[in-house]
Amino acid sequence: MILARFVHLLVVSIFLGVCEAGLTSSYVRETGIATDMPLDSDVFRVPVGYNAPQQVHITQGDHEGRGVIVSWITPDEVGSTSVLYWAENSQHKKTVNGDVVRYKYYNYTSGYIHHCTINDLEFDTKYYYVVGWGNVTRKFWFVTPPRPGPDVPYTFGLIGDLGQTRNSNQTVTHYEMNPANGQSILFVGDLSYADSYPLHDNTRWDTWGRFVERNVAYQPWIWTAGNHEIDYLPEIGETIPFKPFTYRYWTPYKASNSTSPLWYSIKRASAYIIVLSSYSAYAIYTPQYKWFINELTKVNRTETPWLIVLMHSPLYSSYVHHYMEGETMRVMYEEFLVKYKVDVVFAGHVHAYERSERISNIQYNVVNGLCTPINDDSAPVYITIGDGGNQEGLLTEMTEPQPEYSAYREPSYGHGIFDIKNRTHAYFGWHRNQDGFAVEADSLWLVNRYWKTGKSSVA
Ligand SMILES: *[C@@H]1O[C@H](CO)[C@@H](O)[C@H](O)[C@H]1NC(C)=O
Ligand SMILES: *[C@@H]1O[C@H](CO)[C@@H](O)[C@H](O)[C@H]1NC(C)=O
Ligand SMILES: *[C@@H]1O[C@H](CO)[C@@H](O)[C@H](O)[C@H]1NC(C)=O
Ligand SMILES: *[C@@H]1O[C@H](CO)[C@@H](O)[C@H](O)[C@H]1NC(C)=O
Ligand SMILES: *[C@@H]1O[C@H](CO)[C@@H](O)[C@H](O)[C@H]1NC(C)=O
Ligand SMILES: *[C@@H]1O[C@H](CO)[C@@H](O)[C@H](O)[C@H]1NC(C)=O
Ligand SMILES: [Fe+2]
């Protein structure tokens, strides 16, 4: 079996060498539908002690990278609502107070969900923080990003559609063990898959929160909403979309003048990241549209050369499942992605991996028949990375033949690393769970769309 896989890889490598068309990987792996890890799994263990804070997670808390939102849940009573924090090299400890929210979902009542925003941190500094009170306090740490600037190296991890199966656990482990060392995760939507349970059993939101704590308590995950965050179930009276997600996972949307936590932007080191919601109104005249188009005009590519867009549903995907679900957003937004020279668009939703060529399909006007994507030097690369490993399993059916725009596609679980070197160069690697921690199954050098022509004297 191992030998067979080796031969497969060899064949793939040879194929890669001689053929310039897109590649459909022939790598073979187990594709059966996975089940969630049982409730008594080690990853779901409740921290010991009365009312111990659990599901600790952080995300960026401002626009520039000097803010962090620290969130956690206390199960029994409110407890302390503040976070104690200090810089690694300082004895000066500070306290910041936060908010507590709770929600009901049918007959489920959440714990006390705490959100504390720490502002005005120093750039590029390690901080310790403590949550909890009395005998049960828990201590974690994070490192703030460097001040935004054109040649600041920074490494993002990419994870999507994670869920809580053994495959999910393997994806997180591979990310943690990857020597490429991500400093923050761009999460492209579909977190817990609690909605796969009867009544959308929200205790599976809690288990997911405890599972990912080992990473997200130490490095910010930048959240994108997916369809599994909608939790719309009118049959039982749950008619507010995104209720559990928006109570549990806050985003710094106000800092980018957005009016919804579901779309927002941040600067982080040399990257400007715009997060969109595939499941909120996005047509012309809507709040998301107006915000997004205005946002693109604000990006200063001298300060943040790398313009990255995150969304859940891919605009380009050649898998059979979810085929063309992103098409209406593509029709609305693609011309702007090209006009403003977005470097890369990351999406999830399709439980597989795919990378596009730099192509666009914006010349079509209903009557001219020009509806085939063409090579476009100003267009982003589209990367689908919905392969975190949830209980729905992998999507293996692909449209055939592989479209010209599709550069590489493979249904395997894994994660990505987007490694910014300087204003002109970034390296993307896709890591499959079945390989060693350092192995890349697909990779690509990206040349910045704004700086590629050497616009060194232009802001
Ligand atoms: C909610 O209702 C379901 C179905 O009636 C039941 O199985 C479950 O135990 C209830 N949960 C709570 C927390 O009451
Ligand atoms: C801490 O633990 C001790 C021993 O269990 C207990 O007597 C005390 O009341 C606890 N203090 C708090 C603040 O919970
Ligand atoms: C999840 O992964 C961690 C780290 O590799 C491991 O210690 C743990 O036992 C795994 N748990 C399950 C349920 O697979
Ligand atoms: C948000 O709007 C305010 C007021 O117009 C402006 O001062 C601020 O710079 C804006 N923030 C961002 C991140 O665009
Ligand atoms: C863009 O950013 C650079 C570097 O931070 C700065 O010098 C320049 O003034 C900014 N341009 C504008 C138009 O704000
Ligand atoms: C940017 O990084 C690339 C890749 O590491 C390197 O080849 C190039 O020389 C760097 N450019 C500058 C101006 O340092
Ligand atoms: Fe999805």
From TrEMBL:
Gene3D superfamilies: 3.60.21.10, Purple acid phosphatase-like, N-terminal. Its cofactor is Zn(2+); Fe cation; Cu(2+); Mn(2+). CDD domains: MPP_PAPs. Residues 155-353 form the Calcineurin-like phosphoesterase domain. The keyword Zinc applies. It catalyses: a phosphate monoester + H2O = an alcohol + phosphate. Residues 53-144 form the Purple acid phosphatase N-terminal domain. Keywords: Aminopeptidase, Glycoprotein, Hydrolase, Iron, Metal-binding, Protease, Signal, Zinc. Its EC number is 3.1.3.2. Residues 1-21 form the signal peptide. Residues 379-438 form the Purple acid phosphatase C-terminal domain. InterPro entries: Calcineurin-like_PHP (IPR004843), Metallo-depent_PP-like (IPR029052), MPP_PAP (IPR041792), PAPs-like (IPR039331), PAPs_C (IPR025733), PAPs_N (IPR015914), Purple_acid_Pase-like_N (IPR008963). One of its GO terms (molecular function) is aminopeptidase activity. Homodimer; disulfide-linked. Belongs to the metallophosphoesterase superfamily. Purple acid phosphatase family. This is Purple acid phosphatase. The lineage of its organism: Eukaryota, Viridiplantae, Streptophyta, Embryophyta, Tracheophyta.
